[in-house]
Design a protein that fits this description.
265 residues, alpha/beta, 9 helices, 12 strands, 26% strand
């Protein structure tokens, strides 16, 4: 479905991604993990064509992404960014309706079909009762659900998620991740999620892509990627990896130890 061939990208003289290649199959839930600065967010921006790589190519269903116009890309791929700032106090319904923009005609007026799709997306995300509420009146978890609803209103085949559980409490994290998993398994949406939370990625994702300094260090199932050797090599810290007794997936355990302090003068 998505083919990434030898992508390299730099900001000025700093190479952020180097010769990155992978495939995402239809209906997969793929996690992109790696330390700060390893290129996770930049990779998602390239997949959505917010950034253009200096070399390499991305194909969506065999069509080069650079040959697709932005409206066509938005009909196929939706993004839920790590941080989304609204310039105006839109209502929930107005925010979700912005997801219909790629489907609007030349007059840019919403049709009954657009309104129906927006309502359906809010129903899926349990935000329909909040449709008249202003976005600045919602909690962080509620706003995250609205942005998922907006993405669903686009009727995409792929959703890109950048640190989707950042700044959410554990209740909203679980709520959000279970929603994403349901959309993946029951509605067939392809999910690509960048995350710092490797245990969550291990539990929820079919495959993982581990980045180190802009390169793919390891790619495969959680069992193949989340190993003591891989994590200690990429992150430079001591860990233990065992099996989550509930999911059966690999689990990273941090080791507590004191850090030597400099002696007093």
């Amino acid at each position: 479905m998505i083919e990434v061939h030898s992508i390299s990208f730099r900001y000025h003289d700093d190479w952020v991604l180097r010769d990155v290649s992978f495939r995402v199959e239809r209906g997969e839930f793929v996690g992109v993990i790696g330390p700060n600065g390893s290129g996770k967010t930049t990779l998602l921006k390239i997949l959505y064509r917010l950034l253009s790589p200096q070399s390499g190519e991305i194909r969506f269903e065999l069509v080069p992404l650079k040959k697709m116009d932005r409206a066509d890309i938005a009909k196929k791929i939706a993004v839920v960014a790590q941080e989304t700032h609204l310039l105006f106090p839109f209502s929930v319904l107005e925010t979700v309706l912005t997801g219909r923009s790629p489907h609007l005609g030349s007059l840019m007026f919403e049709s009954d079909k657009d309104l129906e799709m927006a309502k359906k997306a809010m129903e899926w995300t349990k935000m329909l009762p909040f449709s008249g509420r202003r976005m600045d009146e919602l909690s962080g978890g509620e706003r995250k659900r609205v942005f998922i609803a907006r993405a669903l209103a686009q009727e995409p085949e792929v959703i890109l998620l950048d640190e989707p559980t950042a700044n959410l409490d554990i209740h909203h994290q679980i709520d959000f991740l279970n929603l994403i998993l349901t959309l993946n398994q029951e509605r067939g949406l392809t999910i690509v999620m960048a995350s710092h939370d490797m245990n969550t990625a291990s539990d929820f994702c079919d495959r993982l892509i581990l980045l180190q300094e802009g390169r793919v260090y390891k790619m495969g199932t959680p069992e193949e990627v989340i190993t003591k050797e891989n994590i200690e090599k990429v992150y430079g810290c001591e860990v233990e990896v065992d099996q989550n007794p509930f999911s059966g997936k690999p689990r990273i355990n941090l080791l507590k130890k004191k850090t030597p302090l400099p002696s007093s003068p």
